Amino acid sequence: PGPAGGCAPADHAIVIQTPADLYSRGLAGRFRDSFEGEIDVLDYAQDGDFSGAGADDLRFDSAENLADEVCRRLRESPGSLVYWSARAREFTAFINALDHKGTCGDRDVTVLGGNDLTNVAQTGAFNDKHWLRLYFSGHRLPDTDPRAGTKTRDFADAYDRFVRTTTRGTDPWRQDGHAAVAYDALHVLSLATDLAYRDEHAAPGAVLTALGSDSIRFDGATGYVSYHQGVNQPPADKTLVLLRQTAEGPIAVVACGAYRQGRTYAAHGEPCTA
């Protein structure tokens, strides 16, 4: 939080990772490499497995003890950000521990995490935690965002129709980007298969070759999907969104990449190019 309740860049981060989890350790490592302020690393493993931990890292297997340590550090550096790279299950235990202790002296806690947190954030589990400022990443704009493309909105509409006809009640994950990523991935595979088997004598590796071509490009659920030729990488300018969770649902505070055709990281400038 910045002056008058606004936002300001954090100059200190408390990084919480599960060192034995490759996903968690990878996210934490990339954050440490790019963050320009001071960093403290806390290892959190409810199962007590701290393999992969740094020699000087503090280690916690209790959510209550971790909450105490985080609050102590937030009192010392009130403008700090908590960067959460551990899994959603551990995050729920941590937030409950903070809530039970009355948070950190009635101060707001700002948390930034990866897209794994959508698994619990969008259920509304934290809607009554008014002290929590939760931000996490995703790969699709909410369909309520005016920047969302037609295909993104069409996907959300089709998703809603499917939920209405197959389940009861509402689906809390309707704005989650995982389903959109999976939908686009299957579309990519379908197009690559079509390209490969235009020739009935195609070799078994033809699909892989097609995936490395620049012939695959389309408007998808996540945005405009295209690939650079001969490069084994994610889609060019893959959509990346920073979301803030609210009681009304996620709100995109930063949108980067090709969420529409013609959008690029370079054109967006900072923070997308940072």
Summarize it:
With 274 residues, the chain is α/β, with parallel strands linked by helices. The chain has helices spanning 22-34, 63-76, 88-100, 118-121, 150-166, 178-196, 206-211, 265-268; strands spanning 12-17, 38-44, 58-60, 81-84, 109-113, 132-138, 217-219, 224-226, 240-246, 249-256.
Question: Can you give keywords for this protein?
Answer:
single chain, 274 residues, alpha/beta, 8-stranded mixed sheet, 8 helices, 19% strand
Can you offer a commentary on this structure?
The chain has 274 residues and is an alpha/beta fold. The protein has two domains: 3-138, Response regulator (Rossmann fold), CATH 3.40.50; 150-226, no CATH class. It is built from eight helices and ten strands. The strands form two sheets. The chain has an eight-stranded mixed beta sheet with strand order 3-2-1-4-5-6-9-10, with helices on both faces. A two-stranded antiparallel ribbon has the order 7-8. The radius of gyration is 21 Å and the shape is globular. The protein starts with 11 loop residues before the first strand and ends in a 6-residue tail after the last helix. The mean pLDDT is 89.
